[in-house]
Amino acid sequence: MKNLFVALFLCLGFSLQSQTDQRIYDIIEAVSAERIEKDITTLANFGTRHTLSDTISQTRGIGAARRWIKEEFDEISANCNGCLEVFYQKDLVKKGTNNRIVKDVYVVNVVAIKRGSKYPNRYIIMSGDIDSRVSDPNNYTSDSPGANDNASGMAGTIEAARVLSNYDFDSSIVFVGLSGEEQGLFGGKGLAAYAKKNDWDIVGILNNDMIGNISGVDGVVSNRDFRIFSEPVPPTETEKERNARRFYGGEVDGISRQLARYVHKTTKTYMPEMNPTLIYRLDRFGRGGHHRPFNDAGYAGVRIMESHENYTQQHQDIRVENGIAYGDVLEHVNFEYAKKLTAVNAITLASIAWAPPAPKKVEIGGIVEPAAKFKWSMVDGAVGYKIYWRDTTSPTWDNFKFVRKVDYYTLEGIVIDNYFFGIAAVGANGHESPVTFPNAIFR
């Protein structure tokens, strides 16, 4: 039966746009708004999860919160016969590191790995933040429930782990609660360094920061819109790579942008009722999230979040002022919406983890010719490749040609001057890797 499917796939030139992997729909259906509500409520009820808050109490503070998160991951693992590797990853941050670190503190992340069977050292990561804060970033004693920012992202990460623990994958999936975000992105810095030290091959990180609010301060109420933030090119690129872009293009085609497009395409394929928006920016104007430390380390990373924020409910002391209720409390969270964005993450994680790796090297040729030429490194486990192209002004990959197991192809009649190109590897199950933008030239 498997061989018959592969043969049919090859004959038809399988299109992800028409893909109907029933498992993906099952994953969407399995995500529970009720469980997300329960977990957000539990996290909010720890009173404060400020990075510098109590670590001894069993009921209040970040210590209690992270122990509870680990217990949840441990329980999920127990229910799938130990399928998750659960551990703490921590770093000591010294007083005075910045003006928000007013005492020595251990920044502790809670990590759960669903190990892949074929590419165990290839990782796709979903994160939520454990910590919270009020108006004063150094106030670590006042109530700071952080229901949306960011119990929503943390609860979504736990729920995605619950659902995906029921499946086996080729690549590894990491579910992580990151700490120290409000004090300076320290949890992300620590895990990115840990990944470097242990030679993780990271496809990217989906950073979920505020996925529960549908009523914006702009007056818009929507339970379908969400944003995907990504920076255009890696900050680790070389001067040679920067200079090459002047002649070959690629200003909006870095690895994080390709990951963002992957999230967008997967969502539109399987959840067409949702309206993802690609935001061509690292994060909100002048701000940063926990994907940034991974970008800084050379990994792909995006931020997934609500489209319509309400600033009266972020980083605010709980109060009523001029008739306006301030504070990030439970009553402002829409759990059905958090369910939808959790599902967006889960199906993206699954699709990448079921796909072969992306080609590492993609060469392009065809200068002053009426044809675009490509050579690429073959990928183990790929039954074919998709050569994508798009108008230079288009944000998404709009056209493709499926080719079988070859490492060279010419698109006749396509002038390379007028389009951008990329190549993705496709597996026997129809799932494909993120696109690799050309990284070399041949003549």
TrEMBL record:
The keyword Acyltransferase is annotated on this UniProt entry: no
Gene Ontology molecular function, alphabetical: metalloexopeptidase activity
Keywords (A to Z) from UniProt = Hydrolase, Metalloprotease, Protease, Secreted
Q: Which Pfam families match?
A: Peptidase_M28
Q: Kindly give the CDD domains that the UniProt entry links to this protein.
A: FN3
One GO cellular component this record assigns the protein to is: extracellular region
Q: Which InterPro entries match?
A: FN3_dom, FN3_sf, Ig-like_fold, M28_fam, Peptidase_M28
Q: What is this protein called?
A: Peptidase M28
Origin organism is Croceitalea dokdonensis DOKDO 023
Which subcellular locations apply to this protein? Secreted
- The residues covered by the Peptidase M28 domain are 109-310
The record's Gene3D superfamilies line, in alphabetical order, gives: Immunoglobulins, Zn peptidases
Set out the biological process GO terms recorded for this chain's protein: proteolysis
